[in-house]
């Protein structure tokens, strides 16, 4: 049930809060998309202390969907090459009015794709 609630929230909202690792106190609002009932996000920035790099060191975290907080495990999707087209389309469709929608489908951002798995 938690997974479906999170998926529905991500589908219906442009911004979802994320907390990477267990050391952070606050949530960062980022773009997320759903493909095949799986939640994905791409890092926009490439800072050393980004949420993406934090998850590479510690896969535990949380996403905030409205008033609900879900524990997650983050991973680089093993089937990323197969999903890239669908994830690109999800970003372009969901964020079609945003100026960064097309750039986030560029290879440098594709390489920073992370999947968030809800811990039930």
From TrEMBL:
Phylogenetic placement of the source organism: Bacteria, Pseudomonadati, Bacteroidota, Flavobacteriia, Flavobacteriales
Organism: Chryseobacterium paridis
Pfam families according to UniProt: DUF2255
Top-level taxon of origin: Bacteria
InterPro entries, per the entry: UCP028498 (IPR016888)
Descriptive protein name: DUF2255 family protein
């Amino acid at each position: 049930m938690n997974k479906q609630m999170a998926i529905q929230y991500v589908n219906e909202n442009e911004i979802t809060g994320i907390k990477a690792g267990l050391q952070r106190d606050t949530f960062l609002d980022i773009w997320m998309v759903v493909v095949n009932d799986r939640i994905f996000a791409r890092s926009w920035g490439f800072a050393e202390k980004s949420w993406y790099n934090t998850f590479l060191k510690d896969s535990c975290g949380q996403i905030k969907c409205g008033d609900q907080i879900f524990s997650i495990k983050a991973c680089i999707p093993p089937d990323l090459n197969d999903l890239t087209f669908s994830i690109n389309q999800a970003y372009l469709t969901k964020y079609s009015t945003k100026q960064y929608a097309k750039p986030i489908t560029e290879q440098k951002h594709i390489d920073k794709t992370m999947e968030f798995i809800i811990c039930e």
